[in-house]
Amino acid sequence: MSRRVATALLLATIIVSVQAQTFNIDTSKPRQTIRHFGASDAWSMQNIGIWPDEQEQAKIADWLFSAENDANGQPKGIALSLWRFNLGAGSAEQGDSSYINRGTRTECFLQADGTYDFTKQAGQRKFLRMAKERGVPYLLAFLNSPPVFFTQNHLATNTGRDGTLNLRPKCYEPFARFMATAIDGLQKHDGIKIDYLCPVNEPDGHWNWQGPKQEGSPATNREVARLARLTDRALTDKGLATQLLVNESSDLRCLLETHMTNWERGYALKTFWTKDSTDTYLGDLKHVPRLMLGHSYWTNTPIPFMKRIRQRLRRECQRLGIGFWQSELCIMQNDEEIGGGGGYDFTMKTALYVARVIHHDLVYADAESWSWWRACGGNYKDGLIRVFDRQRRARDSRLLWALGNYSRFVRPGAVRYEVDGKEDPYGLMVSAYKNQDGSWVVVAINYSEEQKPFSISRDQVAVGADRWQAYRTSDADGETLKPVAVTGSLQPRSITTFVGK
């Protein structure tokens, strides 16, 4: 074979390869409407919010909430569109007698004498205000436990109890009134309007919580339904428009079946959304939208299972006519591909792993909302930002900016569309969205160690490189949503968001 022929064959191979990497947006196949991307203030903001260095606080708030660009057009932050506020149960006031680790205790607005003190949770309230000042459109309040004044063991942890709700029978109505009063008080005291309320968190978790670690309580489906009905009434009595959300399931499998627990805390989708479940049906409540919240923990490996469980969840949600929000995730022990949750990772190793989960939640579960767990954390893979408490300083991570590849550009009201192309969970994964302003957004993940040829078409018509502005996150210096030229290929181990001009 001559050198000329060999060269021609090589060029032909490259051309075929390039063509094989074209991803087509099919505008005839709209999927879900994206509501928001978020993270929570637990538990770091109660400390960060009272640091004396307001510049360091502002830096963190800008990383999380800002939608502004610097002079070079590079985003200053990831522009979260949902901020989750942990409405506390009062373990902090109990001190060491709370049997809860110091770093995970929370204050409570309700006092022992029945009055309310809205100067409590000062650090968290400051970040609520900073979120609103920077344009975060939606706020959510969630609880891990009822106030300690209402619980059966007078603690905010379930230590020593069974799998039922840690709430005295006569305190269901007082608990519902507490939540409504707290939301009303935040609005009157701080001018903060809470859009969503989640009364229980991981009620079906089989651990929830058996040891002195953090606030939490299990609950049966009947208990959740009873509390939802009373809270719906309490919100109405206060004249609040806050939406009431369930069920913050600890594992996607708990939505579909029983998983490491009994029937009283399983089959959440059918239990709450079929009318023949007369004791637990929530479809007739004023403040409860047709939504189900769940956490993606423990379902992200192996990869075929990650895809399969989400497809199954999507089918069941479609059958029942309800939406799905993925409302919490961080790295756990079974995420062995990146070494589990221990130790903090500033690199693309964790960032790409999480981006792959986001992609699967959005594309295969039709998640309308996606939230990370803690905005700020310590030496564990549970924070978007690494906080050094003693020095009172913070450092960003590629994980933060990887979430920003979605949250900064896919704005509330965007519609996801199907994308045709060869997907590889260890190579290229692509999703596409159309914002309400008409702009298109394509998020492309290159999980591989190789540069990948890449192009975008819409309804089989090629979209030229000049029609996009690209923003890339990678381990390269300065590449945290950095504006880059569209070159027809994706860099190794990178996430690139293309925004239609």
Descriptive overview:
The chain is of the alpha/beta class. Helix content is about 30%, strand content about 20%. It has helices at about 5-20, 45-50, 55-65, 90-95, 120-135, 170-190, 220-235, 250-255, 270-275, 305-320, 350-365, 400-405; strands spanning about 20-35, 35-40, 80-85, 140, 195-200, 245, 290-295, 325-330, 370-375, 385-390, 395, 415-420, 430-435, 440-445, 450-455, 455-460, 460, 470-475, 480-485, 490, 495-500. The strands form 3 sheets. Strands 2, 3, 4, 5, 6, 7, 8, 9, 10 and 11 form a 10-stranded mixed beta sheet that branches. Strand 13 and strand 14 form a beta hairpin. The chain is globular, with a radius of gyration of 23 Å.
Which descriptors apply to this entry?
disordered N terminus, 501 residues, globular, alpha/beta, single chain
Could you give the distance between the termini? Answer: 46 Å
Return Rg in Å. Answer: 23 Å
Q: Largest sheet at a glance?
A: 10 strands, mixed
**Helical coverage, percent range:** 25-40%
Strand content: 15-25%
Shape: globular
Mean pLDDT: 94
Question: Can you count the beta strands?
Answer: 21
Q: Given the helix and strand composition, which structural class is it?
A: alpha/beta
Helical segment count: 12
Low-pLDDT stretches: 1-18
Short structural summary:
The chain has 501 residues and is an alpha/beta fold. The protein has helices at residues 3-20, 45-48, 54-65, 91-94, 122-133, 172-190, 221-237, 252-256, 268-273, 303-320, 348-364, 398-407, and strands spanning 22-33, 36-40, 82-86, 138-142, 196-198, 243-244, 291-295, 323-328, 369-377, 383-388, 393-395, 415-420, 428-434, 440-446, 452-453, 455-458, 461-462, 468-473, 482-484, 489-490, 494-500. Mean pLDDT is 94; it is low at 1-18.
